[in-house]
Amino acid sequence: MTMRKNILFSGILILAVISCSGQTQLQKKQADASKNLAEAYISQEDYTGALKELLKAEVLAPDDPHIHNDLGIVYMAKERLDLAVKHYEKAVQLNPSLTPARNNLGTAYLAMKDWDKAIEILKPLTENLLYATPHYPLTNLGWAYFNKKEYETAVQYYARAVKKEPTYVIAARGLGKT
Which domains does the chain have, with CATH numbers? Predict the structure, then answer.
């Protein structure tokens, strides 16, 4: 009789594990669907619609760094910089190599006028040879140093940004303004 109970218990345990695995995969798919819909809303500048979808996605996949990065984008657009920083930091904590989240975190600090914190976050991005869009953090560093009235350093970063991406108007404007 004990052997039958052990076999029955093992069978129930296996079924429970399998059903949880299926539920986790379903939750991941639902979270991805909500995230994708939110990103469509972001592209249309419907930040309230995006926020609704991202909050659903966050419940389903709380450890997805891309969801936290997108939440940061939405909170920045809604001028809730405190929440933007919180989610960008979470995204970076979950995936330290998610360079867009790092740049976005630096941008949030720029918006808060915390120039030194922005510089601390952005500088390492300029050394990352794998970062596909280095002109963004270079330009952001130019802006930070410009606001610190360190104009020579600002010019150096703006010039590097223009060299990397000659058609990036924001860097060219910063260079001309400095």
Answer: 10-96 (1.25.40.10), 119-178 (no CATH)
Distance CA 46, CA 77 (A): 10
Contact status, residue 36 vs residue 60, Cβ threshold 8 Å = no
As a 3-state breakdown, the chain gives helix, strand, coil percent values, each rounded to 5, of 80, 0, 20
pLDDT surpassing 60 at residue 53: yes
Residue 162: partners with Cβ closer than 8 Å, 6 or more residues away: 135, 168, 171, 172, 175
Q: What is the mean pLDDT of residues 90-114?
A: 96
Amino acid identity at 109: Y
In contact, 35 and 64? CB cutoff 8 Å:
yes
Q: For residue 20, how many other CB atoms are within 10 A of its CB? A: 10
Per the CB < 8 A criterion, the answer to whether 67 and 61 are in contact is yes
Q: Work out the angle at residue 86's Cα, subtended by the Cα atoms of residues 80 and 88, and round it to the nearest 5 degrees.
A: 100
Nearest to 63 by CA among 99, 106, 31: 31
- Alpha carbon distance 44, 64 (integer Å): 23
| Whole-angstrom distance, CA of residue 151 vs CA of residue 58 | 41
Query: What distance in Å separates the CA atoms of residue 47 and residue 29, rounded to the nearest whole number?
Result: 22
Which two three-digit tokens encode residue 5?
């109970």
How confident is the model at residue 21, as a pLDDT? 47
